[in-house]
Write a structure and sequence with these properties.
Length: 767
């Protein structure tokens, strides 16, 4: 949703507004920053880390500082501190309490915290191999402000010359000696963190093979640094008490365990360490060696739990199986949380107890929103009902209804729609054994959708669709496979004036195919990968998404096989209706560069391409790309940029030629915490769309290698985000910087007018 300004106010008015806003921010951040600093104490104004070794990453050491200055925008303006300082000292007044609550109090310099920070940094450097490193802190004061500089003298680091393993257990020793997976490399820094990570790796792989009682603390290193040449020899071995304890302890930690039974409890009153149950109040259901102890009124079927459990009877104990079971069961709608425990029952056998606490299964939600697009006001809303345990097997039935109305030149444009989804927490396949389907550990969803649009003076259209989708997740990867998605697009009515003006067969202004009834039968795959580490949320990370889909191949194959006749345009039909045939792919990557909890840069690139072939010379309108809008080049309204240097041919709210087959978006955004729930952003966007063929209805829109660089539009702007944790409301104000459609003299918008601006409202971050 976006608002494109079109006003009669003078340009200097907006400059004044921007100037006033900028002055307000500067005054707010600088106004008496030491107002609440007690006499004899100092505001921690700046902290700097200085090192004599470029290999030491200063940004990584900031995590170990005990004190840092108040958060600052672009590292300069302490807005949250400024808001706090605007408050008065009379706390009986609500305005003072409010300002203090949404602002941040001053960070008072502490010599103790500074000394502890220096010690912590030195300890980190020693763990990284800089055994002789020295860290000193220098504090300077001016007025009531203090600046702290940590000076690192690294010295010559110690490196690992020789690394060996000496473990009596052959199986464990083989894992430790696996150089293809080992984290230890010759001549690496003597990094204690890396050595501990290697212990974790070895222990994890050993426990994967059934050694339930083993853990990394049983492994140790013996280190020889007597060479006096800053080289270290290290040997991985068992702890001394294991080497001299005889067989009593070794028989425990080097014993393999096999799972005997997996027992589920869905009654929170049941003691999971005992199999004693109240038979009057509960039932026991069994499938193979899986048991379910459940109340008389059954909450969940055993099959749903078995399908989402990776801990298998008659298999060796595995930490990974436990972690995956936690993740899979906690993702089921009727489950609030899960607790998994084990009990040794016989020699080398474990019983697994899984206690399940139920959650509410039925939810009702609704949304109402105001819209304003291209000068037209409107209202839209939807109602969503979900039952996350419709058949007592953790199946989710969701129903969504939506309606939207927009007042256009005295007539209401209307849109109605509905969606239905039935999601099973297992792989639903027509063939294959139970064990095969269970091994996939996928979710299956059946979907259906209907929509109706009435655009006054133009057309009405209906869209009916259905599909089957499979999804699954493994560690940092997510996968989505669309077995098929069939949709039928119909145009029951097209206004005569609109048809004569834009769809005239002799000289159409819009592609007539976009307004013909057609089928789309497609299949596709989409995936994503993230490097985000929840244990280190301030570490830089990336999110990569990719997808590919194809349509019409199966139908085209049947048409050839059956020898079907073609229509007058040379295309095959299904039930006398043309079907689309194309292939489409998209690649999207977002990089988060995090400076501190309040400041980060986000870089984004999105590239897509679609190619029609066979039964169609153009991709269906609803499957083509568009440019501009809240998540694209934000100096333009949604679907008002491109393709290429195409110029709009209509004053209608939307030019239906502004779609393409190739898409490129490049974005860079600086995000900062301002105060309370408010966040700020500065952004620079670039991109456009192009057509894959030179369509006569989209002149200037075709992609050419020798011209596309000059057709990349650019925009800049600023934004506000209201982060309420459970959702983010966003406002972005974009201005055109480079408009490829204009003549060369006017392309660079040095003095932008109101037509060069766009205001966007949206939910969530743009990427």
């Amino acid at each position: 949703m976006q608002i494109i300004f079109n006003s009669f106010f003078a340009l200097n008015m907006k400059i004044r507004v921007c100037g006033i806003l900028l002055v307000f921010i500067l005054l707010l951040s600088a106004c008496r920053s030491t107002k609440y600093v007690p006499d004899g104490e100092y505001l921690l104004d700046k902290v700097k880390i200085k090192t004599d070794n470029k290999d030491i990453k200063r940004d990584a050491l900031k995590d170990y500082l005990r004190q840092t200055p108040n958060a600052a925008i672009i590292g300069l303006f302490h807005m949250q501190l400024g808001i706090y300082n605007l408050s008065g000292k009379d706390t009986t007044k609500w305005i003072n309490r409010t300002l203090k609550r949404i602002g941040d109090p001053p960070v008072i310099y502490s010599s103790t915290q500074t000394a502890l920070s220096a010690q912590q940094i030195q300890r980190v450097l020693e763990n990284k191999g800089y055994i002789n490193a020295q860290v000193h802190s220098n504090t300077t004061t001016k007025g009531k402000k203090a600046k702290v500089e940590y000076v690192i003298t690294s010295g010559t680091p110690y490196r690992l010359r020789d690394y060996r393993t000496n473990i009596s257990n052959n199986e464990l020793n083989d894992i430790a000696r696996d150089t293809s997976r080992s984290l230890i490399r010759p001549n690496m820094l003597f990094d204690v963190d890396a050595l501990n990570a290697e212990r974790e790796r070895i222990s994890t792989r050993f426990r994967q093979q059934g050694y339930y009682n083993f853990n990394k603390d049983f492994l140790d290193y013996s280190v020889d640094s007597t060479l006096n040449i800053h080289k270290v020899d290290a040997t991985m071995e068992l702890r001394d008490y294991l080497n001299h304890s005889g067989d009593s302890i070794n028989k425990v930690i080097f014993k393999k365990f096999t799972i005997r039974k997996v027992i589920f409890f869905t009654n929170s009153d049941v003691n999971a360490t005992s199999e004693v149950t109240n038979k009057e109040k509960s039932d026991t259901v069994q499938f193979r060696d899986f048991l379910l102890v459940t109340p008389k009124k059954r909450i969940l079927k055993l099959d749903a739990l078995v399908q989402n459990t990776f801990i298998n009877p008659k298999s060796l104990y595995s930490d990974e199986a436990v972690e995956r079971t936690y993740s899979a069961l906690n993702s089921l709608g009727p489950i609030k949380y899960v607790n998994i425990s084990f009990k040794e029952v016989e020699n080398g056998l474990l019983d697994c107890y899984i206690v399940i606490i139920p959650a509410k299964t039925v939810s009702l939600s609704s949304e109402l929103e105001a819209t304003y697009t291209a000068g037209y006001w409107g209202v839209a809303g939807n109602v969503n009902v979900a039952n996350r345990n419709i058949f007592n097997g953790a199946e989710t039935l969701s129903l969504l209804g939506r309606g939207a109305f927009e007042w256009q030149d005295g007539v209401w444009a209307q849109e109605y729609g509905g969606q239905v989804g039935l999601k099973f927490p297992r792989a639903v396949l027509p063939v294959g054994s139970f064990d095969f389907k269970r091994s996939i550990h996928a979710n299956t969803e059946f979907t259906g959708a209907f929509s109706y649009q009435l655009r006054p003076g133009e057309f009405t259209t209906t869209n009916v669709g259905a599909g089957i989708n499979y999804s699954w997740k493994r560690k940092q990867y997510e996968h989505f496979f669309q077995l098929f998605d069939l949709s039928y697009v119909q145009f029951p009515y097209i206004n005569t004036v609109f048809r004569d003006s834009f769809l005239n067969p002799l000289k159409p202004k819009f592609n007539p195919y976009n307004y013909e009834d057609h089928f789309i039968m497609r299949m596709g795959y989409a995936g994503s990968y993230t490097t985000f580490n929840p244990n280190r949320p301030l570490q830089d990370y990336s999110i990569t998404r990719y997808s590919v889909e194809t349509a019409g191949n199966l139908l085209n194959g049947f048409s050839h096989l059956l020898g079907s006749a073609k229509d007058s345009t040379g295309a095959y039909q299904l039930f006398k209706i043309r079907y689309a045939q194309y292939v489409k792919g998209e690649f999207n990557i977002t990089r988060h560069q995090i400076f501190d909890p309040e400041n980060q840069f986000v870089y984004h690139m999105d590239f897509g391409i679609g190619i029609p072939y066979g039964n169609g010379n153009v991709i269906p309108f609803e499957k083509r790309f568009y440019s501009g809008g809240a998540n694209s080049v934000r100096g333009w309204g949604e679907s008002t940029l491109g393709p290429g240097i195409y110029k709009r041919i209509t004053s209608l709210p939307r030019d239906f030629n502004q779609v393409g087959d190739i898409k490129l978006d490049l974005n860079m955004e600086y995000r900062t915490k301002m105060f309370w729930v408010m966040e700020g952003a500065l952004f620079l966007d670039a991109g456009n769309i192009w057509t894959i063929k030179d369509y006569n209805t989209q002149p200037g829109g075709v992609f050419r290698f020798d011209t596309f660089m000059n057709q990349i539009a650019m925009a800049y702007g600023l934004g506000l985000r209201f982060n309420f944790s459970f959702f983010i409301f966003r406002i972005d104000w974009g201005l055109k910087l480079y408009d490829p459609v204009l003549n060369r003299r006017d392309q660079w918008r040095i003095n932008p007018g109101w037509d060069d601006m766009a205001l966007h409202f949206a939910i969530g971050y743009p990427f």
